[in-house]
Design brief:
It is built from 9 helices and 10 strands. It is an alpha/beta fold.
């Protein structure tokens, strides 16, 4: 935790680097402070409704927009490297609307300037929402799929219906929400709910799943120096192989992921292990005679 990285506005607007940054942080375990912690300007409404504080695209998407509203910011003065997208979008037919009490440099270049009285922004926003609902100028399919508006709400306390309200007592019941299934005429769990958020830090590899490489276990084969190279090949341990267990997240100590056990037929494995082997190309310990497993059964 001696390494930290503060995202800041520059990283938020240029989202192309998000994936690389998050992968680096997960692998190294470095600490990234909450994006809006510096000035406390988290857009709570978007986070509560969509489950994500920054819905939308990166700054170049402004050029593809039909209408763009600039509100609570003044990019012509504070985001000069990105402000050109707004003005270039106007040449593409985009209507740029600036909302601010004063006539700012951004309002100067906008298609329209809306200047509410200071402190009346909330009333203006609620009026816009009312008009959108009254005119039904919203995308119902998008709202149904991407927002929490279809979630069922209790009439007694006006809170979302949760699994605990239905008598469920598992660890994730309090995080499980519901919507109404029109086909079955019953409440069903909403996708993406009902799970515990894992703690931050580097990911735990599958080789650390708790199953050791002991006699009779089946494990994924991989390249010796690449822990993430396992695909479709596997091997069966014919003896306890403690050195193959996970010890630490590194190429040397990541171990081999054991994912199952042989429940019957260990004596057949012993007979196979006693056969002669040879080197074939780059592969060592290849059976001298062809071995065919004619039947296997999966038991749960």
């Amino acid at each position: 935790e001696s390494i930290t990285y503060a995202m800041g506005t520059a990283m938020i607007l240029k989202r192309g680097g998000f994936a690389g940054l998050f992968r680096f942080a997960n692998i190294t375990g470095c600490v990234i402070p909450e994006t809006f912690a510096g000035v406390g300007d988290l857009p709570v409404g978007a986070n509560m409704t969509l489950g994500f504080p920054l819905p939308g695209d990166s700054m170049p998407a402004v050029y593809k927009s039909k209408t763009c509203i600039i509100w609570a910011c003044n990019p012509a003065a504070t985001r000069i490297p990105d402000a050109h997208f707004f003005w270039e979008a106007r040449y593409n037919g985009t209507e740029v609307v600036a909302i601010s009490p004063e006539f700012t440099p951004t309002a100067m270049h906008a298609s329209k300037w809306v200047n509410p009285k200071p402190g009346t922004d909330a009333a203006l926003a609620l009026a816009m929402v009312y008009t959108i609902i009254a005119d039904r100028s919203f995308d119902a399919d998008y709202i149904r799929e991407q927002s929490d508006l279809p979630f069922l709400v209790r009439t007694d306390n006006r809170r979302f219906l949760r699994g605990t309200d239905l008598g469920l007592a598992d660890d994730t019941a309090d995080q499980r929400f519901y919507f109404w299934d029109e086909a079955t005429k019953a409440p069903v769990p909403a996708p993406g709910t009902g799970f515990n958020v894992p703690p931050p830090g580097q990911p735990v590899p599958e080789s650390a799943d708790g199953l050791s490489n002991i006699r009779g276990t089946i494990a994924m084969a991989r390249l010796p120096d690449e822990p993430d190279s396992a695909t479709s090949q596997f091997f069966i341990n014919i003896q306890d192989n403690v050195p193959l267990n996970y010890r630490y997240l590194s190429a040397k100590d990541a171990g081999y992921c054991a994912f199952g056990n042989v429940t019957q037929g260990l004596r057949i494995l012993d007979r196979i292990s006693g056969m002669g082997t040879r080197t074939f190309g780059k592969h060592r310990d290849v059976p001298s005679e062809e071995i065919v497993i004619e039947r296997m059964a999966l038991s749960r």
